[in-house]
Write a structure and sequence with these properties.
- By secondary structure, the protein is mainly α.
- The protein has four helices and no strands.
Length: about 80
């Protein structure tokens, strides 16, 4: 695979916009950041329940929510 050029990423985004990509439409219509407080309650354990601060940092709750939307939209599995 060749190295990406300077404008390759912007060209890719422009082609997705031209094809009416559903992800762009979802991002424009659904305010996903408004779900953050509810997702934080469900996704993360409270600090009082954690035994230690060791280990990998948890992923962002909204990012995981977007991942679940993608998996449902495109019929993807964890594999």
């Amino acid at each position: 695979m060749a190295q990406m050029g300077f404008f390759d990423l912007s060209d890719r985004y422009a082609s997705l916009d031209a094809k009416k990509d559903p992800l762009v439409e979802i991002n424009a219509v659904v305010p996903l950041e408004e779900f953050r407080p509810l997702l934080e309650q469900v996704w993360r354990k409270p600090e009082s329940e954690r035994k230690s601060r060791a280990g990998r940092k948890s992923m962002d709750a909204v990012l995981m929510f977007k991942t679940l939307i993608l998996s449902a939209l495109y019929n993807l599995s964890d594999d």
